[in-house]
Design goal:
Structural class: mainly alpha
Mean pLDDT: 92
Number of helices: 4
Largest sheet: none
Number of strands: 0
Shape: extended
Number of domains: 2
Distance between the termini: 43 Å
Length: about 80
Amino acid sequence: MTRGHTPDRKMSREEAGRLGGRATSRSHDRSFYQMIGKKGGEATSDAHDAEFYKEIGRKGGEATSENHNTEFYREIGRKGGSS
């Protein structure tokens, strides 16, 4: 719940960020977010090499395997095999 700030209480960063995000979403459409996402992806790609992507893929795979059982992998295998 956003309480805002008063003379005796400052707004938290979380509250300020939420308010700013809501204001931005009211003034921009989907294409704006697609454009900034593309720019961010290109900047990340320019800043990192293949080893960076291998490492984050490895970490993601480890996190997934820690959080899911064999039934999860069977199900995604079935979905992948049927498409």
